[in-house]
Amino acid sequence: MRLLVVEDHATLAGQLRAALEEAHFAVDVAPDGEEGHFLGDTEPYDAVVLDLGLPVLDGMTVLRRWRAAGRSMPVLILTARDGWTEKVAGLNAGADDYLAKPFMMAELVARVQALVRRAHGQARADITLGRLVVDTAAARVMLDGAAVRLTALEYRLLAYLAHHAGQVVSKTELTEHLYAQDFDRDSNTLEVVVGRLRKKLGEGMIETLRGQGYRLAAG
Amino acid sequence: MRSLTLRLALLAGLWVAAGLGGAAWFVTGIVTAQIEAALEARLGAVLDSLAAAVEVDAAGQASLARSPAGADFEAPFSGAYWQVTGPDGGVVTSRSLWDQSLPAASRDHAGVLLRQATGPRGEPLLMAERDLLLPDGAAPLHVAVALSRAATMAEVARLQRGLGLVFLLLGVGLVGGVVLQVVVGLAPLRRIRRALAEVRAGEREALAMPAPSEIAPLVTEVDALIRQNRDTVAMARTHLGNLAHALKTPIAVLRNALEASPPAIPVARAEAAALDRLVQHHLARARSAALAAGAAEVAPLALVEEVAQALRRLFRGIAITVQGDARARLRADAQDLTEMLGNLMENACQWAGATVTVTIAAEGDTMRIAVEDDGPGLTPGLAAGDAMARGVRLDEAKPGSGLGLAIVRDLAALAGGSLELAEGAKGGLRALLVLPRRGAGATSGAGR
């Protein structure tokens, strides 16, 4: 899952990146509204954390432009303005959640995870696919009730496939959602990671459709 | 047309010009008609005496038994002429015509023909002529008399000049009077403007000046506004001071906790939470301070709908129903009302099983807004008053600072209303917000 954080306060942006990466998200950070708007408009993010008081272009304008252009990724507004008037304005402009500063990092991460789940139509934090359970809140994977040790990239890939269980996911789509923007993308790495996952989860769990992509059995 | 003086002067000018113009036209018309009637009367008299004096001999030659009276008719080209045309076509004229004749008139008309003509010297004439059948004659005679109009025309022109001058002076005087009236009438407004400038410059406390009865209420209102602004600023300053002082202690504890080795993380965390609460508390109070200043007519139903629309994005499984009269209005600060509604409705959504209902009802002087959910309701043993106490959270598992209901209660009290918590029809919580419809200060009648 790949996230965009639009936040001009460098320290806070760093803390957000660290916390979200720890929760196994790939994170891009934009320091102002204009760059944030450009990234959100051109890259396929699974969710966005958007500050309202931004240089160059304010957050409300960024949000309105995305929505007007048909960009429908879930957006969480993170702002110091905690009045209900601002909250109502933000939500009615197309935000999916609203968190006022100061906030607890754990709450922000939980809310972002909930937004991503909701965007994929999942109400519960854990996705059960037959013998496999992916707990997206704790970033844990259980096979037949036993925990499976995965690297960050392996977990990210599996979680993305789990969110799209039963659907064919192309390599391009996977690459776009697994890596942050400045990451060196290599589709061979993807095959290596899928190979390692098959070893850990057993053959037949992840299906390869030649020329199309991968599919995780829906249970 | 920005200037009141210019507007009134132009309007007055328009009226005066129309009125005086009409009067001048009317008076000139009457006098001219009289002057012309006098000329016509004299013309008629001469024509009659001429007709009485005319004789026709056996050959049909016309002649006059006696010359019609008047020296004018003897002096050449005097402007007074007569002319008789006999049945034979022979013409007898006054001496004044000399060797000329009057322009021939048609002969086929009954009675006296009155018309304008041009005399031998090009002078304007009024001419009266008629056919005359003598008792012993077979064919008619034609008799014509003409008098110069030059004198009457000059008289009319003189009259018009005189009247025009008089009316022009009168008009200028009237418009000038209006301008003077406006300038003098608006003088108190100019004085108030100067006084306001002095207030802004800090040279004077308030307007507090005598003013005509039409403007006195304005002065009173402006003074009330100045006082209210000053109070608001003073209150904001007090709040800011309070906040700064309240923050100092937790900051001191926080710094000490962080500088200790090893840093006392639990203490720091608790103090950070305390700082957060202090800021929230003071922000809420600062918002309410603006209450009196921001009050305006608002439609609560529209605000509730807006908040409901926002909450539907946050709580997708909860059906939020809004009912009530869309025309209902109350005097309140829209931001404060949104704050109260947001807190109450979010609280209801967090606890609801599936539905939240908001009902708006205007009853007499109060607006009653009920927010009801189908959740577990108030915990038995916990009084409704405790639920509203600052920082008390009914369930630590639900997100929120625990300030929501306390903020609503404070804001409601500041608006002259109240918040009541009770068990709803479906067993959930029913929060009833009662607000005065005419605003917080309506009953005290402050400043009147």
Automatic annotation (TrEMBL), chain A:
Summarize which parts of the chain are annotated to bind DNA, as ranges.
Answer: 124-218
The record's SUPFAM superfamilies line, in alphabetical order, gives: CheY-like
Q: Which Pfam families match?
A: Response_reg, Trans_reg_C
Task: Report domain Response regulatory positions.
Answer: 2-116
- Looking at the keywords, is RNA-binding present? no
Enumerate the UniProt keywords alphabetically. DNA-binding, Phosphoprotein, Transcription, Transcription regulation, Two-component regulatory system
GO molecular function per UniProt: phosphorelay response regulator activity; transcription cis-regulatory region binding
GO annotation, biological process: regulation of DNA-templated transcription
By its UniProt entry, which Gene3D superfamilies does this protein fall under? 3.40.50.2300, 6.10.250.690, Winged helix-like DNA-binding domain superfamily/Winged helix DNA-binding domain
Query: Which domain of life, per UniProt?
Result: Bacteria
GO cellular component, as recorded: cytosol; protein-DNA complex
Domain named OmpR/PhoB-type is located at 124-218
Which residue positions does 4-aspartylphosphate occur at? D51
Please report the name of this protein according to its UniProt entry: Two-component system, OmpR family, response regulator
- Species annotation: Falsiroseomonas stagni DSM 19981
Its lineage reads:
Bacteria, Pseudomonadati, Pseudomonadota, Alphaproteobacteria, Acetobacterales
Automatic annotation (TrEMBL), chain B:
Q: Which UniProt keywords apply?
A: Kinase, Membrane, Phosphoprotein, Transferase, Transmembrane, Transmembrane helix, Two-component regulatory system
Q: Report the residue ranges that make up the Histidine kinase domain in this protein.
A: 242-439
One Pfam match, given by its short name, reads HATPase_c
The Gene Ontology terms for molecular function here are: protein histidine kinase activity
Q: Which InterPro entries match?
A: HAMP_dom, HATPase_C_sf, HATPase_dom, His_kinase_dom, Sig_transdc_His_kin-like_C, TCS_sensor_his_kinase
What is catalyzed by this enzyme?
A: ATP + protein L-histidine = ADP + protein N-phospho-L-histidine
Instruction: Decide whether keyword Membrane is in the record.
Output: yes
User: Which intervals hold domain HAMP?
Assistant: 186-234
Compartments it resides in: Membrane
What's the protein here called? histidine kinase
